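To assess whether the prediction recovers the assembly geometry, we first specified each molecular entity separately, as shown.
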Amino acid sequence: MATTLSLHLTRIVSQFSVHSSLFSPLSSAKQRPRLLNCRQSLRFHGRRGFFVSSHAAPRRLFSISASTTSQEWDKHSDASNERYDVIVVGGGHAGCEAALSSARIGAKTLLLTLNIDRIAWQPCNPAVGGPAKSQLVHEVDALGGEIGKVADRCYLQKRVLNISRGPAVRALRAQTDKREYASEMKKIVESTPNLSIREAMVTDILVGKNDNVEGVCTFFGMNFYAPSVVLTTGTFMSGKIWVGKASMPAGRAGESASHGLTENLQQLGFETDRLKTGTPARVDCRTVDFSGLEPQHGDEEVNWFSYDPDYHLEREQMCCYLTRTTKSTHQLIKDNLHETPTYGGWVEAKGPRYCPSIEDKIVRFQDKESHQIFLEPEGRSVPELYVQGFSTGLPERLQLPLLRTLPGLENCSMLRPAYAVEYDYFPAHQCLPSLMTKKIEGLFFSGQINGTTGYEEAAAQGIVSGINAARHSAGKSLIVLERETSYIGTLIDDLVTKDLREPYRMLTSRSEHRLFLRSDNADNRLTPLGRDIGLIDDRRWKIYLDKKARILEEKQRLKTTRISGGDLAAEITEVSRQPVRDSSTLESLLKKPHVQYKILDKHGFGNNLLSRMDKECVEIDIKYEGFIVRQQNQLQQMVNRQHRQLPDDLDYYAMTTLSHEAREKLSKVRPRTIGQARRVGGVSPADVTALLIILESNRRRAHEERKHQMLTSIMADANQEVSESPLKETISP
Amino acid sequence: MALQPAFRFLLRHLPATISSIFPKLSIPVHRKLSILNSSSPKPISPTTQITWRAAKENKLVSDKDERFGNGTVSSAESVVNSSTIAAIVTSLCGPPAAVGIVRLSGPSAVSIVGRVFRPASKKKRRGPDWSPVSHVVEYGVVVDSHGNVIDEVLVVPMLGPKSYTREDVVELQCHGSEVCLHRVLRACLDAGARIAEPGEFTLRAFLNGRLDLSQAENVGKLISAKSVAVADSALAGIQGGFSSLVKSLRAQCIKLLTEIEARLDFDDEMPPLELNPVIDEIRGMLQEVDDALETADYDKLLQSGLQIAIVGRPNVGKSSLLNAWSKSERAIVTEIAGTTRDIVEANISVRGIPVTLLDTAGIRDTDDIVEKIGVERSEAVATSADVILMTVSATEGWTLEDEKLLERIQCNKSGSSSTPGVLVINKIDCAPSSLCDWVNTLSSSFNKHVFTSAVSGQGIPDLEAAIIELAGLNRIPTGGRKWTVNQRQCEQLVRTREAFIRLKSSIEEEIPLDFWTIDLREAALALGQISGEDISEEVLSNIFGKFCIGK
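The predicted structure of the complete assembly is given in tokenized form:
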């Protein structure tokens, strides 16, 4: 088993190199010519600035100021050193991972953020992980990212969800201290070599002659130059927050929105749309009566996001509480539906279906009498409680009465009202799977700008775009995580192939081959890649290799150790309701239903050198071997079938056998493979068949032509060289 | 080659039906249509609509030169379907038929026909372009590129999507001789059509979503059908009985998958999954797959038929039995033992299954060199037949020679002794059946025994019933479902079945919920391959094997 599994992994890893090589000619072709054409492009930008201003009246002020400064800069260009390899715009969860990975790889990186005090802020639920999201966190960690370590360091409570549903859907969730989380991350960002931070509002992207990015321009007229720019604008681009009918421009409550960038990108030809999301009210925990509420404690045995044991430091846990909506909650909402933005009809942007507001839940599930509401602490030093499952668009005057309908909150006081935020995003089919945009070379998008929701989704995209931005600046090939290698790959593949129009949240069901994408093997899958990229240092690499060796050895031991009779056999017979034959291997015992590694430990047949996580890996690999092998076969079949490349120059509009919608969507998305083509919305299985038939008949025709050419050339040769030979007669009839 | 049965089926099922290929069958419709065609004034709106359509078609033609020969096409990928194909779709073998058909399909079918067809009606000749009304027959002549009349034809325009391929289809009903048909086809090719590859019309029907893969496969089966039962099963396949079963099974799998996966992600908001309905549903699906798989054997029978060897001692009435069963005088029958020297074949049909009866030389030790070879052949036939009829004489009873013969047959079949055997006690008219108690002692050596009289024909229906039971046909319901599954579909059904069985055991062993999805997904994948919704290399090569594209 061990050998087959690792074999497959190496196969997957080798796929990266195969696919990344796709990009190598592109990026290596332009290895740092930027110093040469910088002056020209600056002038070009100045012209474009005026051009923009004449079009968009409200933007005039910004553009003119931007262009004048660029002219000024022209004179003093030698004095300035605002030149970087990578510029990351935004200091949220995507921005931090992007900036850190880029700087750690060795790229000189600049992080531009609106407010340095809000780096890695958790404006919504201060929690990390949960179903599918935890896999993302593990994977980011396996690649050498930061989110898992910070969550491990700042947790208030940790629980493993979905324990009984199978190892692939098991999910770790951590409630974190929001203040501590932000300050920890800020410390890390501030202390990373190669990484500078600056407060700024970016209003323009500077674009060179070849539709390549050259830098950014800020509201106050600064230009920063870099061949790679990562945009992680979150909810800030033209952000607008709503409480009831009242609204104001803001990215988050109390923070100003960023203006100008959307229009700039629209001018560059990007398609934009609006999304909305919301956050519930915060209540003062000192005003809540917890006595009647069901407490939810953390796990006794704490699990970890990071594979680095240096971060496995246990701390005291805090308790969450469970309450429920009541009849009067439902009544109050039904009576005031017209006061909510969605049902009142004054906000059109689509919200996340998977994170619905309380009024959505009540309208959609009419027959459900009550919904669960969780009360979660936001930190050790703050009195705020997050009311999970209770986000609402109702006006502020109704919010406190609404909160007070919940048991335990009858006398609560509200610290912050719930609000919704509307923001601009760029449908991510405009990105390549490397997260570089198709239109502008060197420009990367990550996080909510791509239409996702969630810190984990943001971090996952952030690390990929950070790595690729740095590699792009260094003239290296870009990496692509294929769908079947990881949840990160699945996430990005969904983003770039589907024309998503609502916030995208990671779900376990989005990954078809999740048994292979477990949290316990994310290091197996991705750490070698992280090592190749340069994000895994020698210490981490040794930890990884040691763990792998331990597990391999243990599997070998279980395979060869045999027992006959005894207490262990008796207990296993009892637990599994299956007889134990004499001289059974420990491996065969572990395969029986309901038998866990713990039983081996209990009877002294375990291995003390193994950590709990190691034992879990061994147990899963052995116990579910049959399923894993089967899934692997499915995967292999699928990979063979779906990784068939689509030529870049396919003219979909000329393929009359495709439906009109498919022609349109495929032309828009331009998938790289058959697999991606079939995941594009609006493309039916019949369309895929037709496409395959066209490809296959093209292939056959090309083959025939080659054969024909070869034959004619042979004939020509034969005619020339041995004109007297009898061969000639046999060939030319 | 000829697609007429499919076409006939199509005509029967299209909403706006027009005349069939065979005048005899279609006189009433035909007449009605021609009345409509000649006398009734046309409503204006369809005509204008069609003129616009024709104009569009013309533009298409002028943009593109479609006069590529057959095979040597080398332009872009759109060739597969943007071209207009033409072929003679009626059979050219055998004596000339009264009527033959040239069919065209593709975006410029109408304009190509417009170039070679001259309507007889003067009204129609006025416009520069031929603008037919869909599903209305027109009469006229076909001219070649020099304007010479080459045949008198009926034109049947069927504009897309109401056509076999969902493209514009025009059929030219010509005189049935090979010369006429080839001249008309030539004229169409000269006017811009390309000759169709074998099966290409059906391929287009498949690509345009008119048929799914299993339906398309059945078209081929229907065309080559040699018995009513084969034709019925193919027709049932085209009509989608099997496809809809596969689709509904697949939909069920996906529904279950969704149910389970929703619980993985949103456990709090969902009611808990109830196990018993899930298990019942899986059991139900398994049953349906099993039922479908049973038809696979039937399909094999329909395609290859049954071989039944009649063996026995000389002079027990084997040849008489063959004659009686096939209602012919196929074999020579005399009183002399050893009359039959070689294998005599007769073809009959048992409940629609083609059956070949093989009469053999009576098996005995003999010095006659000819008879000796005959005996050897008999034994060889006995080893390869699907069913063996061991014939004995009721008057003589079970003799020592019979015993020896049975041993000989059985030891020849080393290993594969599974060939079913039927003991036939012939000449029952000469001896009362009460004398045949010995039969019961032999019941272990034979699957069945039947009393017959080859002279009176008594017992032949019993024999047929025994054969049907042995071939497993009694499990196939005579009414209701008639479709059968072919080899390719069978393989995927077996894959589906295995997945369901594993799923059941996973549930019974209380394996966690998430693991169920693996086998459910496997089942959905296998089912998707049957209908061609999920395209694997195998399906693709199947399509290319069947339709000869791009060679």
